[in-house]
Amino acid sequence: MIGGYAHIDSPNIQFLGEMPFPRALRYISASTVGIIPFQDAKICHGVDPIKAYDYWSCGCWVVATPDLTPMRGRPYTIFADPEDFPEAIREANHRRVGEPVDPEFVRNNSWSSRSKDIVSIVRSGGLVL
Amino acid sequence: MDKRTANKIKAISTRDSEGPTHFDEGETTMFLCVSNVGSRSRVLHMAEVGAPMVASNVTGWFPIYDPDHMRIVYLQDDWTGRDRLWMAFHSHEVSVVSSGEMVEFEGWSGPPLGYGGDGGFFCLSADERSIVEISYSGGVSIRGSVGEGEKPVCIRPGDDVRFMLLRELGSSEMRWVDAGMRDIHAAKIPGVYAASLDNERIYIMRDDPHRAEIIDLISGEVVSSRPMGDGETGGKAPDWWRPMISSRGHLFLTFGTRTTIISSDLSRTIDVIDAIHPCPITPVMSRFETSRVPKRNEHRVEPPVKEAPRKVVIEEMAAGEVCNIVASPIEMICPSSTSSKMGRAWFYDSWWSRHPWLFLSSASWRATGANQRPVAICRELAKMGNFVIHYSPSNEVCGIVDGVLVLNNEDIMSVIDQIVEMKGVVISTFGSFSTITRKLHDDGWMFIYDMIDDWDALGEKGFFTARSRMLEEEDRMIGDADVVLCSAETLEERAKSKGAFSIRTIRNGGISEIVSWNGEPVPGMISGEIQCVYCGMLDGPWFS
User: What is the pTM of this model?
Assistant: First the structure.
């Protein structure tokens, strides 16, 4: 787990603490499955988690809780209730081998691509950039 | 180095007076580099050549400076630490890095950067991601490096980087060299008093009579020539490091206290600026005989003269210029902002011709690893060549980071005063910036509200303070905005319910290429049958 604020005493869980994003990518890329265990339907309803894109960029499949409705229909993603997470992680780990994340998908969902879209919107508003 | 990056490094000019030029092995990701190089203060030439020049000065043995005008930074052994260095360069229009306390970076192979008190260390361009430095005296004269907070890496011989080298001003030998210092082209231009280079031309001042010339580097032919009258020179000889060339090709010619700006084709005078006193970093040896190359220890050091700051009112300057010419320590005063500390030196020359993008964010630039949506988009827009400002009251530091001007409370209003006429795009991601958005929108800026979360839902969970006020302001912003962007389709409903005029969904994103694991164990990471990762906060109301 990358990030701060909490500790759980478990031999299977390692808290790596906060770190710069480029360094975090090294850890993510050494993993196979990224999890997004979010709750609260109202909050999650408006969340498009950036970490999902980070996971995909590192070739990970994503396992997320069903409250994350904006992620429905996304590729390389499995939804699971908390009690089903272990099995979903195993499944994601397995499917990742046969269905690796497509670099084209990563490119099309990059900040670079998003920024170009924003520029287009601004241009369509009449501003010549 | 990729070609795109290499192309940004257009030229470096230097004089190599004390030894062979040296490059370390390694790779470079340098994307920002303009430099002058000299050793033991014998900087004979300086050129601004299409990329931002952040700071430049002689250092070490030749300690002529005025502390009222310059920021002296003594580098510590953790000099590659991000804040320490780049902040200094953007904190004032003239910043100085002194090698006086320089300590060799541990683990960095190659010669030391400088010696205490005798360094000649030049750190010329820095931001959070890259540090470009040129060093050092006594054997090594040029070295381009970048650091990413860890080990700096250097230009490698054979890299597709070309430097323009004014090798021996005394003998007027001009050279093109590659990263391995192999000659690409050499030319002899006799009778040069002072010169600057860009990619193809040499801008020359001749002293008797005063004359500006442009010479084609390859053919050696005079492309253009014009006399300089007393009104432009003040009857004085040009300073020996002039002229300087702005990224627009305008020439800055300094004659003592007078700076004259002329057009790139020499056809017209754009402006004449008189300073109160000479540039504080004007070397003692202000007149350089072309037939004589100075020898070591020939300089005479005089104590710095304490004089009033040199003040130039922006309106008197040529539009679009000056900001990038930071070697001239002009204190910029913005008349429209009485509390302004910001000078145009904060802005790259090229920015003045572009519509700015101003991002207003509640989260600081560095929040959660400096990868939040506004930060990521700012970076990408800057990469496209846009003039981008990231403002957050939470920004711990100010400066140019990844090509983005990062500001906090102290600076934003003075910047707005300066850019308001440029009519750009203001993007707010939180409902607490209505004073700024309304002012800019009223002045013709495009206003975008970027809805990145359901603030109603987060507010109910106590995620932020002053909830009702913020939400009221957000409502107003949404109603005022030309466009509301939503980071998820599911937020469109919320935008509609609050009266958005035009709604577009722009989801979040990530990096654009797959990051592959090289198979080597990551230090300190446990391994198991399945490697599962969670990257993010663990104490939000949304975390299960």
Answer: 0.52
